[in-house]
Amino acid sequence: MEYKRLEQSLIDIVKEEQAKLGYRKEDVRLYYPLSTLNHFFDTEDTVEEMAERLTHLPEDMKARLGEIAVTHKKDRFCFHIPEQGSEYVHEHTAENEFIKELIELVREHGCTKKKILELFGQYSENTITEEMNNGEFDFYVRFPEGSEDRYYYCFKDEGCHIIYHRFLPEDYADFEF
Fold it and tell me: Is residue 79 a contact partner of residue 70, using CB atoms and an 8 Å limit?
């Protein structure tokens, strides 16, 4: 069970990448800081302890995503997912319509905060929005507690377009925005 959060995150990011770039049967490399991995496992592992933990990925996870190779430099871990993993995500998981629509929206030059909030509103009447004055982002939007989508979507209006990053709640809290 403890590896489920990691696996779901890997799948979510591959889905997001495929929504942005299109599907290709290819290797994917995803990077995580130690702090995020500790959130997944509810631990306070050192780099060495986490590296050891990640040598024991469950067989059922490997059956779906392939023989994932995990390396690290200092406290930054790289997950090298083979072609089998990108193919599995493409063929065996439901397309995330919301993320696909969000990506299409922020690609538009006429993207506005109002349009973003309207899109979120199509998926939930109870989204949570908060202004941010930290220099990194202008506002975030998230779905209510208990929703399947747990991410904080943080947006920055860069003048000619809007960019976003999404964070798990624990990672968002770590930033102390």
Answer: yes
What per-residue confidence (pLDDT) applies to 1? 54
Q: Does this model's pTM top 0.85?
A: yes
Q: Give CA torsion, residues 134, 137, 138, 142, to 10 deg.
A: -110
Domain end, chosen from 92, 115, 133, is at 92
Using DSSP's 3-state secondary structure scheme, residue 98 falls into: helix
In Å, the largest CA–CA distance within the chain is: 47
Positive or negative torsion for Cα 166, 167, 172, 175: negative
CB 15 within 8 A of CB 89: yes
| Domain final position from 26, 61, 92 | 92
